[in-house]
Every structure is written in C-alpha cells, then in structure tokens.
Amino acid sequence: MKRFATMLLLTPLALASVTALAADVDLEAGKAKSVVCQACHGADGNAEVDPQYPRLAGQYADYLAHALRQYKSGGRTNAIMQGFVTTLSDQDISNVAAYFSSLPDTKLTNLAGRVQGD
User: Fold this and answer.
1) C-alpha distances in angstroms, 10 versus 5, 16, 35, 62?
2) Are 76 and 63 in contact (CB under 8 A)?
3) Residue 40 sits in which domain range?
4) How does pLDDT run across 7-52, given as a tens digit for each residue?
5) Is residue 44 part of a domain?
6) Is residue 30 part of a domain?
7) Residue 57, domain member (yes or no)
8) What is the sign, positive or negative, of the torsion defined by CA atoms of 9, 10, 12, 13?
9) Is the overall model pTM greater than 0.85, yes or no?
C-alpha cells in the first residue's frame, strides 16, 4: 500500500517535470537553427539529398538531442557533425531536436515486406 501511495504522489511530479521540459522547447528557433542541417539531412529532415545521411524527421527528440550532445562532447566522432554542434547551445540542441522530431517521416511509413519474417 505504501508503494501505491508513493507512486500516486510522485506521478504528478514526474508529469509536471516532463511538461516543464516540453514547454521550454521553441520549435521556431529549432527550425531557424536547422537550416545548416538541411544541406545533408534535407529540408524536411528526410535525407533526400544523399542516402548516406540519416533521416531526422520523426525521430525521438531525446534521441536526437543525446546524439547532438555526444557529438559536441566528443562521445561520437564525426568531423562534419562536430563542426556544426560546437556552435549550438544546450537550448539550441533541444530546440533543433524537437523541431526534427515534430516533422513527419515521409520515407518509411510501412514496414510490410521490410522486416525479416514478412
């Protein structure tokens, strides 16, 4: 019973913190900062420029932000990406990640015939 009561008390706090984090994201600022990203990842984030570049549209914002922070810290190494992320603040990274996450992934809408075992 104690666990249940604790969960009831902590759930609103967790939801409030997630909501506060989401409220701090500025999609328009992310869109403005994403202009340099579009050269490789495409204007809509679907990497139409070259298939070697990953699609960013529709990816989870926390995954994109983590990847960008890893490039910035040197945890991931790619000379091109590191050159771009060095100019981004932590807020810029959150905004860019949220912006690309908000875009529709128009390239892979159906996994039928693309998953082993189909």
Assistant:
1) 9, 10, 40, 22
2) no
3) 26-102
4) 555 555 444 444 344 559 999 999 999 999 999 999 899 988 788 8
5) yes
6) yes
7) yes
8) positive
9) no
